[in-house]
């Protein structure tokens, strides 16, 4: 089956170079203005609401309950990127020295009601942050 031909009134191989350059320049400027970034974290005020400690509860599957799970996950992301608590030179969480992991765990315990038996569950997610 042959390709259909464009209508006769369509321009054939005609370009207005000044028009193309102007549109390209305008589109680049508008992209720069409309590009949105995520911005800095706003989770530095405290772990729980109003700067209190975060209350953690686990469900029957060993997961942090939804009420505080999102906040805990966000805090884990902030901690994983904190070069004061742990070096950022490791690409694999399993290769991070225990010393750094203990610092992170101490920070979690200081700001939550996490018990020692929650350590494995709460620290597991750092490998994916």
TrEMBL record:
Region (Disordered) residue spans: 1-46
Compositionally biased residues, Basic and acidic residues: 13-35
Protein name: Uncharacterized protein
Organism: Solanum lycopersicum
Phylogenetic classification of the source organism: Eukaryota, Viridiplantae, Streptophyta, Embryophyta, Tracheophyta
């Amino acid at each position: 089956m042959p390709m259909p031909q464009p209508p006769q009134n369509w321009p054939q191989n005609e370009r207005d170079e000044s028009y193309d350059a102007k549109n390209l320049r305008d589109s680049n400027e508008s992209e720069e203005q409309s590009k949105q970034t995520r911005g800095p974290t706003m989770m530095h005020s405290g772990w729980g609401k109003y700067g209190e400690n975060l209350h953690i509860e686990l469900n029957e599957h060993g997961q942090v309950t939804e009420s505080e799970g999102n906040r805990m996950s966000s805090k884990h992301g902030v901690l994983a990127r904190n070069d004061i608590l742990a070096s950022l030179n490791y690409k694999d969480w399993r290769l991070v020295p225990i010393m750094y992991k203990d610092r992170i765990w101490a920070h979690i315990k200081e700001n939550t009601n996490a018990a020692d038996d929650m350590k494995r569950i709460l620290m597991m997610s750092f490998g994916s942050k």
